[in-house]
Design a protein that fits this description.
89 residues; Methane Monooxygenase Hydroxylase, Chain G, domain 1; 87% helix; elongated
Length: 89
């Protein structure tokens, strides 16, 4: 157990950051699942609007320490390619 005041504060800060990071990642995963369902059963316009929302979530997560910017870019690229396959096919 931490004894110094600064170590106790750091424990509190880490717990808060962890909960925020978990919430952000969970919301991104949920949005991506919904997007995959739209790709399978929805229209192209629905997919495009959902993709823009996911872009926003990914950019917000990448701007903090929740997710690395290259990870967010990789997700965006893969999701965009799914939409392009749907539009083409």
């Amino acid at each position: 157990m931490a004894h110094s005041v600064s170590a106790r504060k750091r424990i509190r800060q880490n717990a808060k950051a962890r909960s925020v990071n978990r919430w952000r990642k969970s919301s991104i995963r949920t949005a991506m699942k919904e997007y995959r369902e739209i790709i399978l059963h929805g229209t192209n316009d629905e997919a495009k609007t959902k993709l823009n929302g996911i872009y926003k979530l990914l950019d917000q997560a990448a701007s903090t320490s929740t997710m690395h910017k290259n990870t967010a870019a990789r997700y965006k690229s893969r999701l965009t390619s799914k939409l392009n396959q749907k539009v083409a096919g």
